[in-house]
Amino acid sequence: MDYQSPRGTQDILPEEQPYWRFIQDKAADIAARYGYARIDTPTFEDARLFTRTVGEETDIVSKEMYTFADRGGSDLTLRPEGTAPVARAYIEHGMGSRPKPVKLYYLANIFRYDRPQAGRYREHHQFGFELIGDADAAADAEVIDMAWSFYRELGLTTLPVQLNSIGCPDCRKAYTTALKDYYAAGVAGQCQDCRTRYDNNPLRLLDCKKPDCSAAAAGAPHSADYLCPDCLTHFERLKALLGAVNIPFAVNHRLVRGLDYYRRTVFEIQPLEEGAQSTIGGGGRYDGLIGQLGGEATPAVGFATGIERIILNLKRQEIAVPPLSAPRFFLAWLGEAAAVPAFTLGAELRRAGVPLAQSLGSRSLKAQLRQASALGVSYTLILGESELAEGTIILRDMGNSEQRPLPLDGLAATLSAL
Ligand code: HAM
Questions:
Q1: Which part of the chain is the Aminoacyl-transfer RNA synthetases class-II family profile domain (predicted)?
Q2: What is the pLDDT of residue 278?
Q3: Smaller CB count within 10 Å for the chain: N or C?
């Protein structure tokens, strides 16, 4: 075949759909219970929305965005994340006048020109939620609690929440200076990315995965030691609240996250697995973002989790998901005289709410029963010419192969009661 799905994208086949439905249903359910309303934003946005907020120097903006000029000459980007679009929509629709906090969630496809591998795709899907308009550490704690509870409700076992505070722009200055002082002597021997980060985005020096760079990061100063009094109080309060609701967490001084809009709280959650590297979800506080986009300065905090990565881990942890609803009945027929009556009966039964698949073309009973078995129905109805003449139909129990006649009269009700 000449065509394949583009590298890093996937078809979601019918057999995978129960996982998707399970996760999407749980997402919508927990979002409703925590008071979040759904928002859907466009698949593409003005490219500057992301360059300005996610940050020119981040991997996402510098290496991973799908940006193109449309026929009108506008620079557009397939969304590489969901937070900036929600902030844009919040401002555009004047949601600042709604009672705060405004709580919004989304299920959206996300595009990043990443190197494809297990759990890393060029198109992936996220469940994300954003709590806008509350600066209190309790908002951070509630978002983390919801993320944590979401994985619990899916049945997934995760590692303790990785937590850090990277401070506000004020205290971050002192921290960045300390970080650069620490790296000054050795950075020339580190990777090209880190040499660039040293000048443009020093915080990101901490999460370089290359062995030499990682070793250097181990001795680096901790942002938590440079917090201003307000940021420190916020961080201490957040830890106390998480403790109060028994959410296991570990402060990870090297956690900085790959998007520039974060302030104070950053956090990530990893699944329980050997050599766990793949983060399933991450988030943090982004108090400057809405102001930066031209809205009134508004504190906010949020989280997003990758659906493909959740599915990978549901499978690894052998968690069964409920099957999708399927027909309970199959309607088979025999003899040309039964063809139209069988088709009509099938349509009538479905209109009456009976979940039923039917045999369409003329085939042997054996072939029709094979189809019924493949569909996994509980019962097959068999309409032959003689039954038709008598006003009956045969009901075959697919479990024990027992057959008995049923009157056609009131059939929908009879079947529904089975
Ligand atoms: P993020 O950490 O870049 O955060 O992405 C969130 C999650 O999306 C990741 O933890 C991962 O599960 C999944 N993910 C990211 N890239 C890929 C990929 N290439 N393939 C498969 N899955 C992927 C954000 O995007 C922030 N907007 C989260 C946030 C919301 N912060 C505040 N509010």
A1: 30-322
A2: 81
A3: N
